[in-house]
Amino acid sequence: MAEGWTPGSWRTREALQLPRYPDPRELAAVEEELRALPPLVTSWEILALRQRIAEAQEGRCFLLQGGDCAEAFDGCTPEVISNRLKVLLQMSLVLVHGLRKPVVRVGRFAGQYAKPRSADTETIDGVTLPSYRGDMVNAPAFTAAARTPDPRRMIKAHARSAMTMNFVRALIDGGFADLHHPEYWDLAWVGHSPLAAEYRRMVEQVADSVHFMETLSGEAVHNLRRVDFYTSHEALLLPYEEPLTRQVPRHWGWFNLSTHFPWIGMRTAGLDGAHVEYFRGIRNPVAVKVGPSVTPDALLRLVEVLNPGNEPGRLTLVHRMGAGRIGECLPPLLKAVQREGARVLWVCDPMHGNTENTSNGYKTRRFANIASELEQAAEIHAAAGTRLGGVHLELTGEDVTECLGGARELTERDLERAYRSSVDPRLNYEQALELSMRIVRSQGGAP
């Protein structure tokens, strides 16, 4: 166990990106209420994911992590959840088919209700209010009542996370992910997609392969009827994470039971900060976002703090450099970690380093830049003798127009049609599916 660590030892460190609640007593009461609520995941699920990440570190499987930039309470509906799951299942089918290896599916949902912001306040027409920090903290409407941080929202977030996980588990256990019927995953609005024919060709090939195996063996291949699915979120709001950090029977140490796979964002990855202090003591597999400003020495110190025993499956490094900077910034980091012999899973987040604002006022990302960063990452890892073991994406199963380009070549004028994100732009289904095909090609496969 980490020396001198407790679930609350983060409170002795500087805690960035936390909201200022007006009533500390109400906050404390909510934390006590959270301590009495059931956990959202189990320790054996967490340890199973840790083993899968260790396998991904060795190149025996590939990590696909994706979902909303920030979940909204009103997005906890059967349609939104099932469409999001369909996209991840379809992407994983493309990856399995092309890479010829298992895929570890991790949803960026069931807890992604808090977001870091570049400024604590926002000013409109001379009025200054707290920034919107996600539905777990406050509401997006620009009013004093909506923007005041409310600790009761953590209870609502727990409830919606539980409902999301229950529905996902019920879908998977009920055969929603059955490889015998991948046609169940189709989204009605994309029947006219330029990629539809290529995807259906893959579905037919997989179905033929399953039929062949079952004909050969004379019995059904039962492990194709369901998949393992894990959750992840940025563990930003520490007053929420601490009460859900528990000890369990028959396992040593402490587990964050709000999610299987928490990560630290780039803004809160300071070595002496509260978030690193919290993360160093939990037994979950953990990830850290690594931006272009991180130096090799700083990264090695962070790796040592978060994984001092160099344990397999413990630490994932998610680089997010931007298409224009990855060639310069990533190779020194790979070389330093490789030289130290540190066991990490390298994952590419091609979304966050490629954000820009359009002339008509929309925050967006260009599909060409997203694909470029991903393809450059694969080339850089290959040249360094390291392994790109996964991707981390912001995406949705809804018919949104938030990122430019892709198969339908969305333009700035298209953004006005269906821009729904309250924080960051997401890939829609077509763009996500196209990117999965690019991933296969960048890894030397052929869908």
Notes on the structure:
This protein is of the alpha/beta class. The protein has a single domain, classed as Alpha-Beta Barrel (TIM Barrel). The chain is 38% helix and 13% strand. It has 13 helices and 14 strands. Helix 9 (296-306) packs across helix 10. It starts with 23 loop residues before the first helix and ends in a 5-residue tail after the last helix.
Point out poorly predicted stretches.
Answer: none
Q: Write down the overall mean pLDDT.
A: 91
Helix content: 25-40%
SS class: alpha/beta
What global shape is seen? globular
Itemize the secondary structure elements and their pairings.
Blueprint: H1 24-36, H2 43-57, E1 62-67, H3 78-99, E2 103-107, E3 121-124, E4 127-130, H4 144-147, H5 152-173, H6 196-217, E5 229-234, H7 238-241, E6 245-246, E7 255-256, E8 261-264, H8 274-279, E9 286-290, H9 296-306, E10 315-319, H10 326-340, E11 345-348, E12 355-357, E13 363-365, H11 367-384, E14 388-394, H12 412-415, H13 429-442
Parallel strand pairs: 1-2, 1-14, 2-5, 5-8, 8-9, 9-10, 10-11, 11-14
Antiparallel strand pairs: 3-4, 6-7, 12-13
Cofactor: Mn(2+); Co(2+); Cd(2+)
GO biological process, one term: aromatic amino acid family biosynthetic process
Pfam families: DAHP_synth_2
What distinguishing features does this structure have?
alpha/beta; 447 residues; 13 helices; globular
